Amino acid sequence: MQRPETILVVDDQPDFAKGLARLIGSRHPSLEVVLAHDGAQALAILEQRGPGLMFTDLRMPGISGQELLERALALDPMLTVVMLTAHGDVGSAVAALKAGAYDFLTKPVEPEDLFLALEKALERARLLSENRRLRESVAEAETWRELIGESPGIVRLKQTVGAVAGSDYTVLIQGESGTGKEVVARAIHKLSGRSDSPMISVNCPAIPEQLLESELFGHVKGAFTGAERANQGLFLAAQGGTILLDEIGDIPMNVQTKLLRVLQEREVRAVGGSDTVAVDVRIIASTNQHLEEKIKDRTFREDLFYRLNVLTIQTPPLRERREDVPLLAMHFLRRTCNEMKLPEKGLTPDALGYLAGRDWPGNVRELLNFVRRLVVFSPGEVIDAQAARMVDGGGRLVEASACPLGSYQDAKNHALEAFTRAYVDQLLGRTKGNISEAARVSGLERASLQKILKRLGIEAQGFKA
Question: What are phi and psi of 250, to 5 degrees?
C-alpha cells in the first residue's frame, strides 16, 4: 500500500541526505522522511514502507540512481521520483526523465528550488494515490455488486470470499448449478493481488476430451493431426493471474493426472513437447458434483481432490436465501432493461411476492432468465403478478396479495410477509399442524417457527383437522 505522506531520500553521502531531510521537515513537519544510503537499502524500504515520493542521487556506487529508478518504477509504477544530479550530469537527468522520473534537481540544492519541486511532487503523489484508492474502491464495489443479497448465507459468503482472496492458495468452489460459482471466482480474482493480471475461465465439459489437454497445457507444431502451429495453452495465457477450471468433476482421468503434476510442480509441458515451462497461476476449481462420490466410483483422483481442496467455498442455493429474491429480481430487471436499451421498468409488490414464493430449481441463473422473459413480454412500464403468471412456464407458485406501490423497502417487506404467510400456511397444511414436524421440514428451530406463527397470528391448532 503506497503512503503518499512518506518520502524516501536516497544518497550515498549521509550528511547530504540528513540535510535534505531537515529541509523537507522544516516545510512539512507532518511528513515522514526515511533515509537510505545505497540502492539495495532503498529497494528494501520501497517494498516494506511503500513511500509515495522518492528523492535519489543519480551517481551512487553499486546500484546507480538510473537503475534504482527503473527497478523502483517496476515495483510501483505510481511512485513519484525526483532525481538529484551534479551540474555536469544534466544530460543523464534528462535521460532519467524519459525513463519515468518526474523531475530533477541539481546539486548543490537551493532550498527554494527544493521546496518548489517538493510541492509539485507531493501534489502528484497525493493525486495518484487518491486515484488508485478510488479505482480500488470502484473495483471492490463492482465486485460486491455481483454478489447480491442481504441474507445470512450471502453475508457469510462475502466474508469467506474476502478472506480467501487475501491468500494465493488453490480454491474449490462447490454448489448447485446456477448458484453463482463463476461470480464467486471472479470476485476472488478481483480482490486478490493478481487482479491486474488475466483471469481465464475454462468450461471443461464444453471442450472435447481429445482437445482438453492441448487447450490447457498447449501443444507444439505437428503434435497431432491439425496442429499446424504451436499453441501456448490456457495456463500460460493466464500467467501471473488466475485460471478457473469450471466443472472440474468432468475432466477425464488422463488430464487429471497431468493437472496433478501442474499443481505439484507448478510447471506445464506442451503436448508433443519435451521442455517444461514454469507457471505462476492461481487455480480455482468449481463443481456441482460430489467429488467424494466420484472418488469412490474411481472417476476422480483422490490425490487431485486433496490438492484442489485447500480452501473450500460453498455457494448457497436460492431456496436457502429466498429473502434475496426481490433484490436479485430488481437488479436483473435494471440490467436487462439496460441491455435492451429500454426505459427502466418496475415490479409491483405482488410481482415481487410471486417471485419470492416460486421455486427456483435453476437458482439465480433461472431467476435471471425469467426476468429477461418478463422484460421481453411485458410492454408496460410496470410488471405485475399477472404478467409474471403469463410468462411463467409452470413453477410452483405462492400467491402474494397486492399492496399499493410505495418505497422499495416497503415493497420488499410486503412481498416477504406475503411469502412467509403463504409458506407457513402450506407448511402447516402439509404437517397437519404438527409444530415439531413443520420445524423439521422447514429447517427452522421450533422456537423460531413458533415466533413466526405468533407474529402472523396463525394458530397451528386450526390445521390439525
Answer: -95, 5
The DSSP element (H or E) to which 150 belongs, if any, is none
What residues are paired with 172 via a beta bridge?
A: 285, 312
Q: Which CATH class is domain 3-134?
A: alpha beta
DSSP bridge partners of 200: 243
What's the CA gap between 103 and 116, in Å, rounded?
Answer: 11
Q: How far apart are CA 23 and CA 41, in angstroms?
A: 22
What amino acid is encoded at 111 in this protein?
P
Q: Which three cell numbers stand for residue 257?
A: 493426472
DSSP 9-46: EE-S-HHHHHHHHHHHHHH-TTSEEEEESSHHHHHHHH
By the 8 A CB rule, do 68 and 56 touch? yes
Nearest 10 degrees: CA dihedral of 86, 90, 96, 101?
80
- Is there a common fold for 3-134 and 147-316? yes
Q: Where are the domains of the chain?
A: 3-134, 147-316, 320-463
The pLDDT tens digits of the residues spanning 340-373 come to: 888 888 888 788 888 988 889 999 999 999 999 9
* CA–CA gap between residue 137 and residue 153 (Å, rounded): 24
Are the C-beta atoms of residues 280 and 239 closer than 8 Å to each other? yes
Which parts of 356-411 are beta strand (E)?
A: 382-383
Dihedral of CA 356/360/363/364: which sign? negative
Sheet holding 171-174, edge to edge: 199-203, 242-246, 282-287, 171-174, 311-314
Say if CB 230 and CB 221 are below 8 A apart: yes
- State pLDDT tens for residues 193-225: 898 899 999 999 888 877 898 899 988 888 787
For residues 374 and 332, the answer to whether their CB atoms sit within 8 Å is no
Q: Which CATH class is domain 147-316?
A: alpha beta
Rounded CA-CA distance 157/248 in Å is: 21
CATH number of 320-463: 1.10.8.60
- The alpha carbons of the chain give a radius of gyration, in whole angstroms, of 30
Grouping H, G, I as helix, E, B as strand and the rest as coil, residue 457 is coil
Residue found under cell 397470528: 457
